[in-house]
Amino acid sequence: MRVRSEEKKGLGIAMKGLRYLFLTTIKNTIKDLKNNPGKLVLVILFVALLAVTVVSSLGVKGLEGHDYRPVEEIYALVFLLYAVTFVVMSYKGLSSGASFYSMADVNLLFQTPISPKKILFYGLVKQMGTSLLMGGLLLFQYGWVGQTYPITMLDMLVILLGFGVVMFCAQITAMAIYSFTSGDDGKKRTVKIVLIGICLLMAAYVGIPLIADQSNLLDRAVKSVNSVYLNLVPVIGWVKQAVVGTLTGGYLYLVAGLLATAAYAAVILLLIVKSRSNYYEDVLQATEVSFSAITAKKEGKVNDLMPKNIKVGKTGIRKGWGANAFFYKHLLENRRSRVLILDGMSLLFLAIVVAFSYFMKDAGILSVFFMATYMQVFTTAMGRWGRELTLPYVYMVPQSPFKKLVCVCGESVLKAVFEAAVMFVLVGVILQASPVEVIACIIARTGFALLFIAGDILIERMIGASLGKVFLMFLYFIAVVILCLPGIILGAMLSTVITVLSSTAVILLFSFICNLAIAGLIAFLCRDILNYAEINNR
Amino acid sequence: MFQVMHVNKLYGKTLANNDITFSVGDGQIAVLLGPNGAGKSTIIKCIAGLLRFQGEITVGGVDNKSLEAKRLLGYIPEMPAVYDLLTVGEHLEFIARAYELENWEEKAQSLLRRFELIDKKDKLGKELSKGMQQKLSICCAVLHDPKVVIFDEPMVGLDPHAIKELKNLFMELKEAGASILISTHMLDSVEDYWDIAHIMINGSFAATKLNNAEDTHEESLEELFFAITEGKTPHPTDE
């Protein structure tokens, strides 16, 4: 009896400890904002923008006479979003696992006499919060989604909730995959084959009928994605079905989807806790890997995250003298991280843009261009130059700061030009656009790339090391939107005056000239940035 | 030589360096001592030109952010500065190219040999242990024959052989007329070769001591350090 009551007492203390840790972390994060006014302003701006987006659009539905696209398309998009999230995150379980814990959790919490199950529960609650926060960025997409499809902000919130559930299930799936396959190549291969097999089956189910008959491509693809078979795919189909059920009032689907997903999560969690007496070991390595990934992301060295086994290949930088040694070093680093000019993210975006132009042939090359530019904002901010600012060499090498600036950005420019050429030659072929329009698109995209790089430099110059990468990204996003406007406005105005070229070509070419001028001006104003910037590794 | 004059550095509201003034002459080894958070790394980063500050720092008589000063400077950071995707050999090639050095290969070989990195020449930065990364960082910093060399906790993570070689390197640089500044916690590791020691507390210099081997009555550097940092005796500047 006495032992039991002491056990109970111990349990109470354990829960208190975890609750204390959880709440204090939140409290201190908020308190820390006081010491960091720049961050505070951005948080307020972020929350205000989100609130304005949510409040101004709550309950607004189906404007009379507005020509919306079929709502089924958004259901198919939701399926795609959930599928990519779930598959990509679960796949991580094969190499590194996924972890809800920080290094501090692993080093301090795992040593305590708190039951591993309680610690697992703490990790899950924390993870749920992170998943929803990440999904919160989805709400900003309401601008174009609400314009294109007849759905309200409340519907968007439901989609977001579903996204959180999918992320959560993917995370525990990754953890389970990791704990069952770690150290066993045979099992790893099997899981890999199963995961890839499911993806291929889904792709074949949607794709093969489209190849056979090429009429009404988009409608038929949407129909296939929304078919009953794909709705039965675990987690992805179930959660999507629950979301669609909520949006359409089909509550039976909602209940069925939720029950199936809950059962799935319960089984996976049970497997993790029961089958392995000690999940700490699995989590430990996973945490270390994701910790280094998080650190890398914070430092902006996204491309340095690479497969464990890198082929060194030919050694030697071989080219470059003075400041441009940085440029040739970047090319070598790209080769090592298996980036053949375009990295994985660029290739993914390239595929999305090409697919978009294929399915939306009627929209015209200008719509494709603007959609591609929207995505470009994210890929340009990931160049190697951000990583360079975290090491002392770029500041210490005795070369003119402007030359160094140009050379460390060179790799990003080269990538942008190549990406633009590949993308718009493909899009041009699909849309049967004129060569002048294709060239105008390539030139204009290069102009936007220069502008975005300049925006990145400007933010770094103004804000520098005092903010986290996420907030820098957010500020950068706002800055590039403002910087883009003059070019677009000038292009649009002149397109009504100049009739020698097509209006598309005029808009694109003049936006290029304007962007080039703005980028040049920013580069000139920030020419000494490497003399005055502070090393960004605090 | 280099000179630091009335340097202040603020991080937000925290004063990390408060009116720091000192200089290190040619062929002189200065050590910076102090507890964690005393501001040693901050002043070192200011000298290296990696942080903004108020005041003046000159290297070889010119502003520390000028190209002439950068040519004279070598800096070994506390956390090894290594590129994940370059091999050991390529790090030195990169430095040689960026600093526009001619005939650097022989010196690079000899540095790699003495720090036992020659057999790791084709290993990537990310594959090296922390100690090896630190050794590589040292090789990179001295390849261009700097006349002012600043070491921030250089011994941390090094094996005994590397520590011995590093101490030899200090002496060689000193004999070649370089000005050397070393920040360290390891008092016993600097006991035998320093010329001047500055003890920092809360961003300021609490004491400065010259190495006077003939005076046996003077308290040792270690005694002085603990007297100041543990607050046992208020100690005036001993210069």
Classification by helices and strands of chain A:
mainly alpha
Detail the poorly predicted runs of chain A. 297-305
Distance between the termini of chain A: 53 Å
Uncertain runs of chain B: 234-239
**Oligomeric category:** heterodimer
Order of helices and strands of chain A: HHHHHHHHHHHHHHHHHHHHHHH
Mean pLDDT of chain B: 90
Largest sheet of chain A: none
Helix-strand pattern of chain B: EEEHEEHEHHHEHEHEEH
Largest interface by Cβ-Cβ < 8 Å: A-B, 36 and 36 residues
Helix and strand composition category of chain B: alpha/beta
Beta fraction of the residues of chain A? under 5%
Q: Strand count, sense and closure of the main sheet of chain B?
A: 6 strands, mixed
Number of helices of chain A: 23
CATH architecture of the domain at 2-86 and 146-161 and 168-229 in chain B: 3-Layer(aba) Sandwich
Assign an overall shape of chain B.
Answer: globular
Query: Which of globular, elongated, flat, extended, rod-shaped describes the shape of chain A?
Result: globular
What fraction of residues of chain B sit in β-strands? 25-35%
Task: Give an overview of the whole structure.
The complex is a heterodimer of chains A (538) and B (239). Chain A has 538 residues and is mainly α. Chain A has two domains: 36-299, no CATH class; 322-532. Chain A contains 23 helices and no strands. Chain A starts with a helix and ends in a 6-residue tail after the last helix. Chain B is an alpha/beta fold and 239 residues long. Chain B has a domain at 2-86 and 146-161 and 168-229: P-loop containing nucleotide triphosphate hydrolases (Rossmann fold), CATH 3.40.50. Helices cover 32% and strands 26% of the residues of chain B. Chain B starts with a strand and ends in a 10-residue tail after the last helix. At the A-B interface, helix 14 and helix 18 of A face helix 2 and helix 3 of B.
